[in-house]
Amino acid sequence: MTPDASTWRSSAEYDHLDALTASDLAWEWLRRNEAYDADFEALAGSDVPKNMTDQIQHRWGLRFPRRPTDATT
């Protein structure tokens, strides 16, 4: 789905960002990154090798205290 770019210059469209913490803002942009999404999907798969988890942590500068869970459950 392509976002509607017709209002990209409207500051009102971005007012909600003022209330976000730094980590919330980082998450908003990171979750839209297709490469991150692909890495997350791979990590969410079964039997992920430890070296893959380490590579993803290093690539994105993240720490995973536990395996990701399905957000829909």
Beta content: under 5%
In whole angstroms, how far apart are the ends? 24 Å
Number of helices: 3
Spatial shape? elongated
* Mean pLDDT reading: 77
Main sheet specs = none
Question: Helical amount among residues, as a percent range?
Answer: 40-55%
Supply database-style keywords.
73 residues, mainly alpha, 3 helices, 42% helix, elongated
Summarize the SSE layout with pairings.
Layout: H1 22-30, H2 34-44, H3 50-60
Helix pairs in contact: 2-3
Summarize the structure.
This protein is an all-alpha fold.
Question: If you had to describe this structure to a student in words, what would you say it looks like?
Answer:
The chain has three helices and no strands. The protein is mainly alpha-helical and 73 residues long. Helix 2 runs antiparallel to helix 3. It starts with 21 loop residues before the first helix and ends in a 13-residue tail after the last helix.
